[in-house]
Amino acid sequence: ISFPVARSSVALRPPRLWASRRWRMPPTRGRRNPMRPADRLNGYVWILLAAFFWSLIGVISKICMNAGVSPLETAFWRAAFGGILFLLHAAAHKGLFIRARDAGIFLLFGVWGVGVFFGATQYAIKLSGAAMAVVLLYTAPVWVAVFSRLLFRERISPRKLSAIGVALTGTTLV
After folding, report:
1. Under 8 Å CB-to-CB from 148, ≥6 apart: which residues?
2. How far apart are CA 119 and CA 75, in angstroms?
3. Whole-angstrom Cα distance, residue 96 to residue 84?
């Protein structure tokens, strides 16, 4: 299976082969960091904006639920607006390319990976409150690592283990 990324294609391989390959930076012609300071600052601004808008999920969800909007409807509108913005951005940058044979996996990911996730997040906010839902949301990478080990026998490297420790420590501090 291959997933188009912008204008290129990345082939999926079993997880154990991913670890054996190292990604390498393109040559930088003697410079340590090829990014200009303005580009780096621009990147930080986008990261901060993403973090800010991500932090509004619980607040906006609570406002919607208090106004009588169901969790699934909130999830639908969140996915719809996100999908529209994604398509506009991809079209503007000519990065929208999906082969017909890959359309099924993208549809499956969209329905299951995004739709069910958004719906589950909204129901978690409704049933346990925004704070608990956010804790569950931010520990998602830890759960992925644990279930990857249990279901796919994926090795938890020392680097992954330290990342899990940092994530759990950060969650505890919150």
Report:
1. 15, 154
2. 5
3. 13
- The SS3 call for residue 5 is strand
Instruction: Identify each DSSP E strand in the chain by its residue range.
Output: 2-5, 8-11
> pTM to 2 decimals?
0.60
- CA gyration radius, the chain: 19
Helix (H, G, I), strand (E, B) or coil at 24: coil
Helices (H), 94-157: 103-108, 117-128, 130-138, 140-152
- For 20-43, write each residue's pLDDT tens digit: 445 455 555 555 666 777 777 888
Residue 1 is given by DSSP the state -
Cβ atoms within 10 Å, residue 73: 14
Question: Per the structure block, which two tokens stand in for 78?
Answer: 């969140």
Separation of alpha carbons 98 and 86, rounded Å: 14
The yes-or-no verdict on residue 148 having pLDDT over 80 is yes
